[in-house]
Amino acid sequence: MSLVHLSVIIPARNEERLIEQTVHYALLACQHFSNEWIDDDDQRPRTWELMVVDNASTDRTRERLQRYEVHGEIVVVHLDRLGAAGARNEGRLHARGKILVFIDADTMIPHDCLARVAEHCYQREHVAGITSLGQLDGGIRARAWWSFWNHVRRLPLARAKAMPAFMFCTSETFDRFGPFDERVAIGEEWPILAGLYRNCSRNFVYDRTIIVKSSSRRMDYGAFGYTRTLIKYVWAILHYQGRVHYTDTIR
To answer: Is the entire prediction scored with pTM above 0.90?
Structure first.
């Protein structure tokens, strides 16, 4: 079995509206990574795989993925056990890459994003990290929302290194600090990101020059969405029960 240098894992449940766009941007970034990074041993492009974990979708998510799967551009893994954390963990079980990149199904990444991740892992000795988040949709409130959290994540606190719309780690780091915590509905990434930051912060990177764009739909849904979501996030940060009893169906 040939070595895979980078595995991209996208958990998806009922994401028919955005999944094709997310996969399209991820494929462009994978191809750019392959063009930019050459294996030192045989001078061939470094390899990648793109995996979507279909988390028991009941809409047309599977149908949307078929044309990519038929052409061998992606691998689709089906998981009936519900939960974003479990879907990410399932992706890890199937992934063969030295670097694991986790992308939410409503998050679009720039074309050079994965090449930059590889630079962190191969040249700068970073073993896990996050990037800035920007707005995919919404107006001034959405812009202010993502700007606020981007500043929060600069704080020198382990739990501030959170929100896994886009995150990466080496497979060794995942196996050491992971998996994602399937007992909680939010903050499931803390064992990995916060765990590494507590143990060796110099190997963690928050690259604010990379901006991935994520949907603001969870906040735009319903009255006072931004306020309600902020309160739930604060509760989750302060209390374990807030992470378990997080009620929003849109993550």
So the answer is: yes
